[in-house]
Design goal:
Oligomer: single chain
Strand order of the largest sheet: 7-6-5-8-9
Structural class: alpha+beta
CATH class of the largest domain: Alpha Beta
Shape: globular
CATH superfamily of the largest domain: eRF1 domain 2
Helix content: 25-40%
CATH architecture of the largest domain: 2-Layer Sandwich
Number of domains: 3
Largest sheet: 5 strands, mixed
Radius of gyration: 26 Å
Strand content: 15-25%
Distance between the termini: 33 Å
Order of helices and strands: HEHHHHEEEEEEHHEHEHEHEEEHEE
Number of helices: 11
């Protein structure tokens, strides 16, 4: 999955010379055999384009070497999704398997090009799925296309891992005089006297869910996206009662995650998200039209104005026409904007730059059809 974090990493690298390669891939079937052939052809095209920039044939061969090596990597092609994005800068390559088919494309020039991946970063497409049982907690970065597990989080693993193994002692085993005053003793360390096994188990589960919710809220602090929780009614009820995830919690699926495979979890979670995501897109379009119709300066449609506002971090919501392009370049140091077909050879698209800068500054991006855009290439709601 390609996320905003990946976008930030690519944009920070900005090599003086980079190669961006996109191609469709296949999960299974005889078509898999065609995928390395596609990459071989695209790599050859990239090599020729590198030579045209002034590199020698030997230097160009070394530059695309990591991609060439992948062509013969049998195991690599056995674990693909519907699209592959590959970025080369002369060092270690970066590759992303993505759940959308990508048209074949090679771009050689300064930095990297990411426009084919923008659908994965749409504001109406990103959410988080969390599955919780007493024995396991899993977090997935999700979109309307697919989801992938994030195994780098610091979420609690299980009740036992956080609170210790069960150590309940029936109250009949001790006389009232011998029972200690447990007071505020940490439940993870104490034997509990006087409570029933059911009450003791519930207390442990409540403490566990409290810690999971707190860790999840902290994890999402930098990038607050909606959360769909998949858990039993008991665990889901505890999470909702705590209120820690409000207003991020988009819905709770009262299902045992262990009874579902990952594809079923995604389908069920997206069914919960679909109305909310569609409403966000509709609200963004309606708000823009209201501001634009009233002559409000916060409604911007000029490409030049959008470019400058994006780099200044002033775009709150960007509405972008699908498959539209404005070839050009913005020089931030001089505030100069140049346009023309000459920039097509390096893949410099001003609309892509606007979208990337909007995402980098925490704004939202919605991709719409040309008809929905009233045949404008782009429009935006400005913060100020």
């Amino acid at each position: 999955m390609f996320t905003r974090s990946d976008l930030s990493i690519l944009m920070k690298e900005t090599p003086p010379l980079g190669v961006s390669i996109f191609l469709p891939t296949h999960v299974r079937g005889s078509e898999i055999r065609q995928d390395p052939i596609r990459l071989r052809n695209l790599t050859a095209r990239a090599r020729d384009d590198l030579v045209s920039t002034g590199l020698s044939r030997t230097e160009a061969e070394a530059f695309v070497g990591p991609a060439t090596a992948l062509v013969e990597d049998y195991r690599f092609w056995q674990h693909q999704d519907h699209g592959l994005a590959l970025f080369l800068d002369g060092g270690e390559p970066r590759s992303y398997r993505v759940p959308i088919p990508l048209a074949e494309r090679v771009v050689v020039g300064p930095g990297f090009r990411v426009k084919p991946l923008l659908p994965l970063l749409e504001a109406d497409g990103a959410f988080v799925v969390v599955t919780i049982t007493a024995d396991e907690v899993r977090l997935f970065d999700a979109s309307r296309f697919a989801m992938t597990e994030d195994k780098t989080t610091d979420l609690p693993d299980s009740v036992a891992a956080i609170l210790g193994e069960p150590d309940y002692e029936n109250p009949l085993q001790a006389s009232p005089v011998a029972r200690p005053n447990t007071g505020a003793i940490d439940i993870s360390q104490a034997q509990v006297y006087g409570d029933s096994p059911a009450e003791w188990r519930k207390a442990r589960l409540v403490e566990f869910t409290r810690r999971v919710a707190a860790a999840l809220r902290q994890h999402l602090a930098a990038n607050p996206v909606p959360v769909v929780l998949v858990a039993t009614a008991e665990i889901g009820g505890h999470i909702q009662k705590l209120g820690t995830l409000d207003p991020l919690l988009a819905g709770v699926l009262e299902r045992d995650p262990g009874s579902l495979d990952d594809a079923q979890v995604h389908d069920a979670a997206y069914a919960v998200m679909r109305p909310r995501l569609g409403a966000a897109r509709t609200a963004a379009v309606e708000r823009f039209e209201t501001l634009h119709g009233g002559g409000d300066a916060r409604a911007a449609t000029s490409v030049d104005e959008l470019v400058r506002a994006a780099y200044q971090g002033r775009i709150d919501t960007l509405l972008l026409a699908e498959d539209d392009t404005v070839w050009g370049c913005y020089t931030e140091a001089t505030d100069d904007i140049d346009t023309g077909a000459a920039f097509e050879t390096t893949g410099e698209d001003l609309l892509e730059a606007v979208a990337v800068q909007t995402l980098q500054h925490g704004g939202a991006v919605h991709l719409l059809s040309p008809k929905e855009m009233s045949h404008r290439p782009a429009a935006a709601i400005l913060r100020f």
